[in-house]
Amino acid sequence: MSTRLRALGAVVAMVLLTGGCAAGTHPGAAAVVGGTEISINQVDKTSRAVSAALGNDYTSKFALSDLVTNVLAAQIQQEKSIPVSAAETAAAAKSAVGGDEATYQKFQTDSVSKDFLNAVATSVMVTVKLGGGTVQNLQDQAVLQKGTLAMRDASKSIDVTVAPRFGQWTDGQINSTISGSLSKESDQTKAKREATATPEPGQG
């Protein structure tokens, strides 16, 4: 199950979107999605707000991954003129938190977590509609799979760049094991340090 829906307790599958390189952002930017910038400050605020709503840690990596997906879905929605009503957004938002009314209400008490959940819900509805479904198909895996493939195809023309400190955007989430050259050099330095710290035969 995806990072987003595992964290929010939903059972629908998250879209798998194409990734971009781990370069191309400027200081203060966590990612750029088709020309739309996601700031580090926005990521931090989202992480804190969603953690409070969920009652457990929702890391910056999770937050950025979902923020990127939300922007991608919004751009695809606009390009394809896909209507999503307020009622559909509310239904998808409740589904995204596993139908837990108490958790849903916690998200509503803070503007950041509320906007984030609504964006998540909208992206799910866009996926469902691309799969030929309606709000009644939020749990329909066949519709979601079809929508996922359509979203992946639609996203191919949208560039995604992620700041090296977070990793790289791969298959719809942040892969923190892939980073920029500084991190790779750091790994090499670590390997050299570990090699020099190995005890000589007969020591220890």
Automatic annotation (TrEMBL):
Q: Where is the signal peptide?
A: 1-22
Q: Known InterPro entries for this protein?
A: Trigger_fact/SurA_dom_sf (IPR027304)
Membrane-crossing residue ranges in chain numbering = none
Keyword check for Signal, yes or no.
Answer: yes
Q: Which UniProt keywords apply?
A: Signal
Per the record, where are the segments of Basic and acidic residues compositional bias?
184-195
- Write out the ranges of the annotated region (Disordered): 172-204
Biased-composition ranges, Polar residues, are 172-183
The reply on keyword Signal is yes
Q: What is this protein called?
A: SurA-like protein
